[in-house]
Amino acid sequence: MVTGETAAGGAAPTGPDPRTPSAHQLRLFVALAEELHFSRAAARLFITQSALSQQIRDLEKRLGVRLFDRSSRAVTLTPQGRVLLADARGVVAAMERLSRSASTQARRLSGRLVVGTIGAEAAMPYTHAVLRLLNERHPLVQVDVVSLHFADHFDALFRHDVDVAFLRPPVPPGVEVQHLATEPRLACLSASDPLADRDRITLAELARHPVIDVPPQVPRLWWDFWAADPRPDGTPVRYGPVASDLEGLLHLVAQGKGMCFLPAAARDLFPRPGIRYVEVTDLPPSTAGLAWLRENRTEPLVEAVVAAAGHVASARDRGAARGRSQVED
């Protein structure tokens, strides 16, 4: 037999089978079977009573069975109608599931999100948690993670080289942050420094130590915080040579050219020959967060990653609250 022809040699039928009911007609059938009243069913379906009657007659013709007994007083299901009602409901429910699934797929985000990280932020647990949740919620989004120098990590946001960045506040105007973590800051000293073997020191003891500086394009607001400038007693901070990235900064410290303050995580993530990390008892802690440009807050991809960061932060807060409650109990 040749494909596309009947056994008798005629052309095979094409198009939908005229005996197959439409999903719309099955919805009308289910509604009328539930109401058993043409006027009420038509009102529920937002169509006219005559249109409903016509569609039901056409459905009965297609199926070859009478579905309803009609009289001037009542509408009742025929025995055949009662049997077919269960199947019709199954088809209508399946079509509704298909529609919802299609709607969900249509709303799924896709595209490329460029995420910047500074220092060791790419390795931090909260960064992994945010990006993992983003992938679970929006698997079609391609996430590219790029490493940024502290000399230009804010510029990367303002130039739109990255969409968001995991970084350490404070941030300049125009940038918003979702807080993700808090941890102490440590003094990073040359191993030859007399204070390097101490367990704890104070800011006053570091008053005469020069602090490694950063290039002029770095927002001063940010580096003043990381240099602890000004000091609590008003002592002016002396600055030493300039470093534009973390490795350069650590190299200068190891050479004894100056010191710096870094998050406590640096002790484990950036051990280097010739440097020591020492706790500073009166140094305020640092925070970590996800940052984005305020003007881009409503961009769909930015909204998605910010929502994931908010969820991770909320889960962290709930866990901390439970921990405090257990300690109190």
Compose a concise summary of this entry.
By secondary structure, the protein is of the alpha/beta class. It has helices at 23-35, 38-45, 49-63, 79-107, 125-137, 153-158, 220-226, 246-254, 266-269, 300-328, and strands spanning 68-70, 75-77, 111-118, 141-148, 164-167, 175-183, 185-190, 200-201, 211-213, 239-242, 260-263, 275-280, 286-293. A five-stranded mixed sheet has the order 4-3-5-13-6. A four-stranded mixed sheet has the order 8-12-7-11. A two-stranded antiparallel ribbon has the order 1-2.
Task: Write a structural description.
The chain is an alpha/beta fold. The protein is about 40% helix and about 20% strand. The chain has helices at about 25-35, 40-45, 50-65, 80-105, 125-135, 155-160, 220-225, 245-255, 265-270, 300-329; strands at about 70, 75, 110-120, 140-150, 165, 175-185, 185-190, 200, 210-215, 240, 260-265, 275-280, 285-295. Strand 3, helix 5 and strand 4 form a beta-alpha-beta unit. Helix 1 packs across helix 3 (about 50-65). The longest helix has 29 residues, at about 80-105. Belongs to the LysR transcriptional regulatory family.
